[in-house]
Amino acid sequence: MAQNTTQQTLQQRLEILADAAKYDASCASSGTAKKNSLGGAKGRGGIGSTEGMGICHAYAPDGRCISLLKVLLTNHCIFDCHYCINRKSSNVRRARFTPQEVADLTINFYKRNYIEGLFLSSGIIKSSNHTMEQLVECARILREEYDFRGYIHLKTIPEADPGLIHQAGLYADRVSINVELPTTSGLARLAPDKDARQIEGALAKTKSRIIEAKDERKRFKHAPRFAPAGQSTQMIVGADNASDADIVVKASTLYGSFGLRRVYYSAFSPIPDASAVLPLKRPPLMREHRLYQSDWLMRFYGYAPDEVAQATDSHGNLPLDIDPKLAWALKFRGQFPVDVNRASKEQLLRVPGLGTTAVGRILNARRHRTLRLDDVARLTQSIAKVRPFLVALDWRPTSLTDRADLRALLTPKQEQLELF
Ligand code: SF4
Asked: pTM of this prediction?
């Protein structure tokens, strides 16, 4: 017989609620292979698990990689989002923490050096406002009663009172509001209790508050901080029929309109007793990875969203076997080869195989000498990928750039999670 929530030990509830939180992609470990925190020899995910007992990794504003306790306050929910294992109609094991319990767990883990912060989300219990009050209360206890100075990321609920979201931002380093699905029609179909306008309204208000708080702190040293690490969001990939091109355009609009620090992509995973409106199979994890790469192209490599979309196939999807930068370069070979000794930074950033660090090193090195192919090889990780697209003092690719089988030549034999 299922155990009543009140009979569960703290440990049992932690197992349930840390495992339930793994579907939330809003921290950096989500880009890696997901590991079940209930797995491992001792049921704790094993050594090195990115999610064992709810520990995930995120990047702090200063660029450090930090470990977070990633957990839900509860996986009870009054909403019925089709893609979510915690939805009202799911018959998953349920559990619930009080805000005090999560605050105590955080402090205990923190004192033992297991974590440096907390990522807290929740299913919706009673009402959006009631749930948001509980999330805020947990952050309040940590900050005001325990004087906790570690990192706090709070998932906020767009349907909650704006005053509560404001309070969340006063305690948290980062807040996030999930847009959930790339299209409004997908949201209406798969998350009938949610409203795209309400979600975007909450993102817009949070953006304004972040800007206001920054302004005030410039003028008044002791003005309160508001989500100093900004806001982020998450989109589920593969639950509806949105193409990668749709997702890229949506992400770009979100970055532009709401000043987001990150858009996280979470490959939809089929859940037990899934609703019939969902696909039976999860999309390949590589699709999620290609979307993260396209996100980087827009944020760090100067690609416009429609240029990333040009790298997609006739269905609007990015190729899985090669990265989107290479796919774009193969389609627009007329832009190559570029001269490593004369090309602008923007042109060099388009060369497959050259990352931002390598481009920085090339620009620096060519101030002192004219570069040969060997010099470039020393500054990059994959000269084979670079050669067809680059001219150096002693290298010109001649017909290599135009070869019909260039794609086959450059397709990795065994895909690795490379970053350009
Ligand atoms: S609101 Fe939707 S996505 Fe969030 S926990 Fe409830 S059912 Fe899941």
From this structure: 0.85
